[in-house]
Design a protein that fits this description.
Blueprint: E1 3-6, H1 14-25, E2 30-33, E3 38-43, H2 47-57, E4 66-68, H3 72-78, E5 79-80, H4 83-92, E6 97-103, E7 118-122, H5 127-136, E8 140-144, H6 157-164, E9 170-173, E10 183-188, E11 191-196, H7 203-208
Parallel strand pairs: 1-9, 2-9, 4-7, 6-10
Antiparallel strand pairs: 2-3, 3-8, 4-8, 5-6, 6-7, 10-11
Helix pairs in contact: 1-5
């Protein structure tokens, strides 16, 4: 049975955040809040944890995970960012957007799109997620918490516990999240394309598309 932590949505308790990091570093799968929906997360490079998430979500090996980063500088380690993309990223990061960008050599091959060598990255504007990333000191591998046969993410932490406490190592109760996932913006090869409209306003990106 997974643990269930109630973490303050605005001022996360450092003691609990450190315990979250211990779970992640031991290969655990966690459910945590973002500024869009709840998400599943694990340590980058932990194949066993990634496979657990794939089974839980029923994802095939072609599904792209997202790297959740602390800030724009960390994002820049894993993605090639041109001048136009940097201007948009700086204006809208952190925020409820996932950006598809050309990957750098820092990205493990298993995480990249097999043909396009692209990667999804985001910097969430959520105090709990930021506290986890700051304490972990590296990105978190993540996907939205949308279960098979569901159209929307789960957003009630107690419902999440009822459904998933035996399938993950830790559930963080950070209050209710949005029922929408992040808005997905492709910025590959100097072309801006809205791939999914979620809780992030796509208008600024449409103007530059």
């Amino acid at each position: 049975m997974g643990q269930f932590f109630q973490i303050h949505a605005e001022t996360p308790q450092p003691r609990l955040i450190r315990q979250v990091i211990e779970v992640i570093q031991k290969g655990g799968v966690i459910i945590y809040p973002t500024d869009s929906s709840y998400a599943l997360g694990c340590r980058v490079g932990d194949k066993t944890a990634v496979d657990r998430i794939r089974r839980l979500r029923r994802l095939d090996d072609k599904h792209n995970f997202t790297l959740i980063c602390r800030d724009l500088s960390e994002l820049g380690l894993y993605a090639k960012v041109d001048t136009v993309a940097f201007r948009l990223l700086k204006a809208h990061t952190p925020g409820p957007y996932t950006y598809i960008l050309n990957a750098t050599r820092e990205v493990p091959r298993i995480l990249m799109h097999p043909k396009r060598r692209t990667i999804g990255l985001r910097v969430p504007n959520n105090p709990i997620a930021q506290a986890i990333l700051n304490e972990l000191g590296e990105p978190l591998l993540s996907v939205s918490l949308i279960l098979p046969d569901h159209d929307e993410p789960l957003n009630d932490p107690y419902e999440i516990r009822d459904v998933l406490e035996n399938q993950v190592d830790l559930i963080i109760d950070g209050g209710y999240c949005s029922l929408e996932p992040s808005t997905v913006i492709s910025m590959v090869d100097d072309t801006i394309e809205i791939l999914r409209v979620g809780c992030g306003d796509p208008t600024p990106f449409e103007q530059d598309a």
